[in-house]
Write a structure and sequence with these properties.
Layout lengths: L4 E9 L10 H19 L3 E6 L8 E7 L2 H9 L2 H4 L3 E9 L7
């Protein structure tokens, strides 16, 4: 049996005004980002994802399910928003999900 680990990630846009002043191409990239995360959920590689709602300090929280930290990092690197350079991986660390609601 393969052990699945969880990894907590923070991704941040490179521009502070990313939410309040999006550039033309960023809408398409963020749509691709959303569909990429949905595909990870279907593959059971994504446990949770969502953006924070404070425009002055935008970032996204992601919890991945992966066998290794390297796999988790590679999943993030394939994200269209990371590949396009409009967001970056700010933090990635293992996490134990002690309590979850079904």
């Amino acid at each position: 049996m393969i052990k699945t680990n969880h990894y907590y990630a923070i991704i941040k846009p490179y521009r502070q005004d990313f939410i309040t002043n999006p550039r033309e191409n960023e809408d398409k990239i963020m749509q691709d980002h959303f569909f990429y995360l949905k595909s990870l959920m279907k593959q059971k590689k994504l446990f949770f994802a969502g953006p924070t709602l404070i425009p002055e300090d935008p970032f996204g929280v992601i919890i991945l399910e992966a066998e290794t930290a390297e796999e988790a990092k590679n999943l993030l690197k394939k994200d269209p928003s990371i590949k396009a350079g409009i967001q970056r991986i700010d933090d990635l660390r293992p996490i134990r999900l002690s309590l979850t609601r079904k």
